[in-house]
Specification:
By secondary structure, this protein is mainly alpha-helical. It has 2 domains: 4-67, Orthogonal Bundle (434 Repressor (Amino-terminal Domain)), CATH 1.10.260; 73-106. The protein is built from 6 helices and no strands. It has helices at residues 4-18, 23-30, 34-41, 49-59, 76-88, 92-106.
Length: 107
């Protein structure tokens, strides 16, 4: 199982790629060396709180979004458990929307 450093680094990389940014672009916006960002993304380094806040700002996400690792669940049981938990807290309108999304994905 991956540790927090690896999960956080992977999440930062995932968010960076979603924004279509290179490591160089993000590191420039954050004000850190690209090598340091690379080490963070592979889980060999851990950013300071200040750097983490700058990364979140540069990626236009809330800091909490960088700690959402559920989608990287280790196995199908974990994925089903996460989905079950999310569904239990959803109202009727949300369930109807989820059904539409699921239909679109599985088609």
């Amino acid at each position: 199982m991956k540790g927090t450093k690896e999960l956080l680094g992977g999440r930062i990389k995932e968010l960076r790629k979603l924004r279509r940014m290179s490591q160089e672009e993000l590191s420039e916006k954050v004000g850190i060396d690209p090598k340091h960002l690379s080490r963070i993304e592979v889980g060999r380094g851990f950013p300071s709180l200040d750097t983490l806040e700058k990364i979140a700002g540069a990626l236009r996400v809330e800091m909490k979004d960088m700690f959402e690792f559920e989608h990287n669940a280790a196995d199908i049981k974990d994925i089903r458990k996460t989905i079950d938990t999310l569904i239990k807290g959803t109202n009727e309108e949300g369930l109807r929307l989820l059904a539409k999304v699921i239909r679109a994905v599985v088609r």
